[in-house]
Amino acid sequence: MRLPHWLKTKEIIGDHNTKHLLRKHGLSTVCEEARCPNRGMCFSKPTATFMILGDRCTRNCGFCSVNSDMPMPPDPTEPERIARAVVEMGLRYVVITSVTRDDLPDGGAGQFAMTIEKIRDLSSDVKVEVLTPDFKGQREALKKVIHQEPDIFNHNVETIPRLYNTVRPQADYKRSLKVLEMAKELRAEQITKSGLMVGLGETFDEVVEVLKDLKEAGCDIITIGQYLRPKKSNVPVVEYIRPEVFDKYKEAALDMGFSFVASGPLVRSSMNAEEMYSFSR
């Protein structure tokens, strides 16, 4: 399918200094690994979503372009390197995400916790959002992350339950909802966030049902964006959703009581994350 006009944007060349600093500290970003269409805009701000625990994922989701392979052991110097990059880049708001690490006993939760701690050791006023995998639903693993009191805890459900076998075959919809519930149980004031991709063959009513499930799980912020196929090996786009449909999703979500909703063709989970945090408080 040809890309519709509402998904065509002028290319913004990312700030080369941002890329230089990332390479200098030997860091990866999900912006680059997942081939995000907004990476040039984000790098020019500058902002970036740091990806910890390597660039090899133990799962093989149909929508994702990150390599699926046997990962390397966690790098104990990584949290410190990220913290120093945050200071050097002058960031006020940081998003930390990771590949899924089912090979690790805690799913990598300890590395998330250490990264938050190191960032705040060097920059106590920096806001930190985490976008985590499901840690196989382990409460004790999640507790390690929540104990560090991230400003936002984000875990994406990604799609409707009917499409999980194709889009997220090694994940579980109900488990993802439970992760969001547990984050609130562990820390009542924790702001939680989740995200959805559309255009994979879901119906409008199915998306609305997911929004209801997320609200019931205590989710505060929701992002909804158009799925764009990163590589030919990924699942194809079934439909390009029109902007007015995204407006209807936003209206439905706000009516349900979400504190902030970002819904649009080019919306991504970590895009304008600082603004989402500011408006949701």
Molecular structure report:
With 281 residues, this protein is an alpha/beta fold. It has a single domain (5-280), classed as Alpha-Beta Barrel (TIM Barrel), CATH 3.20.20.70. It is built from 11 helices and 10 strands. The chain has helices spanning 16-24, 30-33, 39-43, 78-89, 109-122, 139-146, 164-167, 173-186, 204-216, 243-256, 273-280; strands at 28-29, 49-52, 56-57, 67-68, 93-98, 127-131, 152-154, 192-198, 221-226, 260-263. An 8-stranded mixed beta sheet has the order 1-2-5-6-7-8-9-10, with helices on both faces. Strands 3-4 form a two-stranded parallel sheet.
Helix content: 25-40%
Query: Could you name the CATH topology?
Result: TIM Barrel
Counted by DSSP, the helix tally is: 11
> Any idea what the shape is?
globular
Which structural class best describes the helix and strand composition? alpha/beta
Question: What separation lies between the terminal Cα atoms?
Answer: 40 Å
- Poorly predicted residue ranges: none
Biggest β-sheet, characterized? 8 strands, mixed
> Total domains, how many?
1
Mean pLDDT: 89
Spell out the CATH superfamily. Aldolase class I
Percent in strands = 5-15%
Give the strand tally: 10
CATH architecture classification name: Alpha-Beta Barrel
What order do the SSEs take from the amino end to the carboxyl end, as H and E?
HEHHEEEHEHEHEHHEHEHEH
The Cα radius of gyration reads 18 Å
Task: Enumerate the strands of the largest sheet in spatial order, edge to edge or round the barrel.
Answer: 1-2-5-6-7-8-9-10
CATH hierarchy, class = Alpha Beta
